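User: Hi! I'm working on a homework problem where we have to compare a predicted structure to a textbook description. Could you give me the structure for the chain below?
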Amino acid sequence: MLLAAPRGYCAGVDRAVSTVERALERFGAPVYVRRQIVHNKHVVQTLADRGAVFVEEIDEVPSGSVVIFSAHGVSPEVHRQALERNLTAVDATCPLVTKVHREATRFAAEDRDILLIGHEGHEEVVGTAGQAPGSITVVDGPDAVDDVEVKDPSRAVWISQTTLSVDEALKTVERLRERFPQLADPPSDDICYATQNRQNAVKRIAARAEAVIVVGSANSSNSVRLLEVALEHGAAAAHRVDGPGELCDSWLDSVRTVGVTSGASVPEVLVEQVLDWLARRGFTEVEEIVTAQEDLRFSLPPAVREPRR
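Assistant: Happy to help. Predicted C-alpha cells:
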C-alpha cells in the first residue's frame, strides 16, 4: 500500500469540529449547526450523537439558541437572520475561506467585476458569492467561460473556491485570460494549502498504483477532486468510499499496488479501518509517501475559546 501524507483533517476542519465539541461542553445540548459542519457523514453523525442538531436554514433554529456556522462560510444575510432571531452565533468558517470573503468585499468596494471560480451551488461558493452579490459571477470550470460577461474587462479580477483542483482552476484562469487579457489575480493563492498538499501526494501515488482509494464523502469537493487527480495522473482506477463498508474485493483484481488517501474532512480512524480491510486481503506492506509537513493550527472562535489563565 502507498499511503499518502498529508491526508485527512486540515487545520480548518479540525477547528470547525472542535468548535462544535467545545460548544456542546460550554452551552450544553442541543446546539444547532447550519448545514453540515464539514462534508463528512461520519463526523456529522458523531456530533449528532453528542447533541448537535443539523439544520438547513436559520429559521429552523429556536429563538435564543446557539447556532454554529459551518467551515464553508456563510453570507452576511445569514448573519443578519441569526441576529434577528436573537441567536448566539458561533462562526466556524475556515480562516482561509474568510480570507477569500475579505478579498471579495474589497474588490466589490473597488467596483470590480469579480469572477468566482468554483462549483455552482457548493456551500462555500454560495457563501462567498453572498459577500457581494451584485459584483460576483460564478464561473463553474473552463467550459463556462464563454458565457461570462463583465461590465469593464479592464476591471475584472478572479478569486476561487478553496477546495478546487489546482490544475482545473488554472485551466479556467487561462481561458478567462484569453477572453479578458487584463484580468487581475488575487493577492495570494485562494486554493488552500491542504487541498494542494493532498493533491500533490496523490499525483505521486497515482503514477505507481494500479488503483487508488480515496476516503471521503460524495459531497466533499476536495475528496472528489482527489479522485479526479488520481485518474489524471496515472492510476488505472480510483474509487471513493465513505468507509470500509463500501469497499469491493473486485477492485483489487490484478492489483499489486494500491494507493490510499483521504479528504481534508476525514478522521484518521476511517483510514485506519480501510487499511485494516486491505491488510486482510494481503496488502500488508505499507509505504508512506510524504510530500509535505503540516503544522498549521487555527485558534477557536472567541465564543468557545478557553479564557487565558
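For your comparison, note the following. The first helix runs from residue 11 to 27. The chain has a mean pLDDT of 97. Good luck with the assignment!
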